[in-house]
Amino acid sequence: MNDDLALAHWLAQMQHPDPAHIELGLERLNHVLPRLALRHNPLTFTIAGTNGKGTVSAMLAEGLAGAGKRVGLYTSPHLDRFNERIVVDAQPVESLQLVQALERVERARQGVALTYFEYATLAALVSFDDCDVDARVLEVGLGGRLDAVNAVEPDVCVLTNVALDHQRWLGDTLDQIGAEKAAIFRPGKPAICAVAAPPDSVLAAAARCGAKLSLASQAYSWRRDGARHWRWLSGVCSIEGLPWFDAAQSANAAAVLMALKSVDLLASLSQDDIATLVQCRPPGRLESLNDCPRILLDVCHNPASVARLADHLQQLPVNGEITLVFGAMRDKQIGLMLESLVPWVRRWIAVAANGGRAMPADVLAASMSQLSVRPALVGGSPWQGFQRARELTPESGCVVVAGSFPVVGQVRARLYCGAWKEQ
To answer: What is the pTM of this model?
Structure first.
């Protein structure tokens, strides 16, 4: 059995009996993690928040590499291959090493039942230990307090923002959700909050545990300088001439710069290092491919992230010729997610990725039609929906593929392997 097949076998075992099952709690990790006897204790950053976690994690990894660190980056979910979740020095860990890490986890669990995400988290920690990384960036999967990543003691925490999402597990109010996410904070450790006015529960959590809280607009700030640049300020430290993309990107980057400053690494970065950091975005986040029509890929799975996509769409020079290929999970607030796109989308195509959590395409199409007062097409699979969108969209327009990770990931994988050029 080759390494990729061996990893696929492991992933199938991890998903049994239900890959969509979510069971929060730290008890299982607290039993298994000590048995792994990890040798190293690298500088650790934990990232939580409703939106922007993946971008902040990627930026931090970029900044730490610029500071000369060997960096392990753990994010989720993946777009195409599981290996994307566990990265060392900007390269996904090879399948053989992941198999060996999972085998080590299996020996250590000693009958403790682990979820898919718990297996993945422990495999990441083992892989980083084997690679002797100097720093590791760990993205929280869901919430914070009971997420597997919170079993690891961080040196620095970053909270990107708090918005409504995953209410079934995190609560129905911003205060409840904020409390869950702020539970990653640790006594005496830096806690960077990328928003100026977080829910009161975030402030209370920091005060209760004695974290060193740095709020945007207080401990640090950023502001736009003209059409193409922005600047970052913290005390007497100022960094000017940073490339502008949009407000969300700058807010994320500003928090990362403060996180690096909190551990005395910011001063070791060159201006070029910082410019690279602030422009860093993971694949599938407002990712544009130049073609006729233009193609835009964006993972956006809650109302706040879809609103950012809407802001971006109104800046595109496409004369209103936008076709949206969209798919989401069953538990999402589809009406709230799609309403901000109504003014900008001319054609709506509903799709569904494989898996039990996906909203059926016909159900999604009905919601689209009701919101937009325009008929929505049922595209079937994400790739079929994309093909139909290309047929319908004029060369001067834009095809937007958005929604859940599986939707964007399936289309992106086909695009980058050249499948669309073969037709």
So the answer is: 0.94
